[in-house]
Design goal:
Layout lengths: L1 H9 L5 H8 L8 H13 L3 E6 L7 H21 L3 E5 L10 H17 L4 E3 L7 H13 L5 E6 L5 H8 L5 E5 L14 H17 L3 E5 L3 H13 L4 E7 L4 H9 L4 E7 L3 H11 L1 H22 L1
Parallel strand pairs: 1-2, 1-8, 2-3, 3-4, 4-5, 5-6, 6-7, 7-8
Helix pairs in contact: 1-12, 2-11, 4-5, 7-8, 8-9, 11-12
The structure holds flavin-adenine dinucleotide.
Flavin-adenine dinucleotide (FAD) binds next to strand 4, strand 7 and helix 12.
Length: 305
Amino acid sequence: MILDRAIARLLPAVPRPVVRLVADRYIAGTELEDAVAVVRELNESGRLATIDVLGEEVRSADEARAFAEAYRGVLATIEREGLRSGVSVKPTALGLALGYELCRENLEAVVRDAAGRGRFVRIDMEDSSTTDDTLRLYRELRGAGLDNVGIVLQAYLRRTLDDVRALAELRPSVRLCKGIYAEPPEVALEDDADVRRSFVAALEALLDARCEVAIATHDEWLIGESLRLVAHARSPAYELQMLLGVRAQRGIELAAAGHRVRVYVPYGRRWYQYSLRRLQENPRIAGYVAADTVGRVLRLRARAR
Ligand SMILES: Cc1cc2nc3c(=O)[nH]c(=O)nc-3n(C[C@H](O)[C@H](O)[C@H](O)COP(=O)(O)OP(=O)(O)OC[C@H]3O[C@@H](n4cnc5c(N)ncnc54)[C@H](O)[C@@H]3O)c2cc1C
C-alpha cells in the first residue's frame, strides 16, 4: 500500500515516455485505426468491444462538439468495418463541466447517430460531483425514446442501491463496476469487503428488476459470485466487461466458456492525462502497474540472456 501510494504520487514527475511505456497496455493507441485493429483482434477471439475516445477535461464548447463529432466518426467506422463494438462516452468530454445543456445536446447527437446504425452507447460514470447530472442525462434520453443507451453504477457509492431502486422502472442497461475515483468516506465505501458486498447487493437488485447488466470487474471472487447469481436468476441478460490490458487471458477463457465478454478499448492523443488520472485516482492501480512493469522487465532480461 505504501509503495503503491508512493508510486502514484511520483507519477507526475515521471517522464512522459516512461508513463507511456507503463500505460501502453491499457490504451489501443493514439489513432482510431489503432482502436480498430485492437477491436478486430478482440472480435476474432470471440470478445466484443466498447470504444472510448480519450479526453475528459474539455475547455470550450467547440472542443466538446469536436468530441461528439469524433464519436460520430467512430460509430461510422464501426459500421463500415463491421466491428462488434459500441462506444463509451464520458459526460465531461462532451462538455458537462461547461454546461448541462451543451453536454445533453452533444450526447443526444451521439446516441441518435448510434441508434441509426444499430449501436449502443454507454455513458461512463465519473466522480460523484457528476452522478446526479449523469443520471438525469440518461433519464432524459430514455424519455426522448432512445433505448440504445446505458448507464454505469459504482458499487463503492453509498447511494448506489437507492439509484438501482429509483431507476428500476426504466429497466435500464447498467454497467456495474466498483468505482475508480477518489471519493470522501461520506460518499463512498472504503473497505474492499464492503465494496464487494455492495457490488453483490446491487447486482442482485438489478437482476431482480430484470435489468440488463454488464458485470465490469477483474476481481475473481466477484466474477465467481456474479456468475453464481446470474445462474440462479430468471432469464438473466448479462455480459462480463473488462478493461483493455487487464486479465486478458481470463477474458478469453470466459468467452470460450460461452459468456458474452466485452472489452473497454480507449484510444486517443490524450493518453497521458487519462493514464495519469487513472493511476493517481486509484493508488492500488499503481501497485499493479509496478508489479506488471517489473515483471515485464524481468521477462525481457531473461529473454536477452
Ligand atoms: C469495462 C469497465 C468499465 C469501467 N467503467 C468505469 C466507469 O464508468 N466509472 C468508474 O468509476 N469506473 C469504471 N471502471 C473501473 C472500475 O470501477 C474499477 O476501478 C476497476 O475495474 C478495478 O476494479 P476491479 O473490480 O477490477 O477489482 P480490483 O480488486 O481493483 O482488481 C481485481 C484484480 O484485477 C487485476 N487488475 C485490476 N486492475 C488492474 C490494472 N489496472 N492493471 C493490472 N491488473 C489489474 C488485478 O489482478 C487485481 O487483483 C470500469 C471497469 C471496467 C472493467
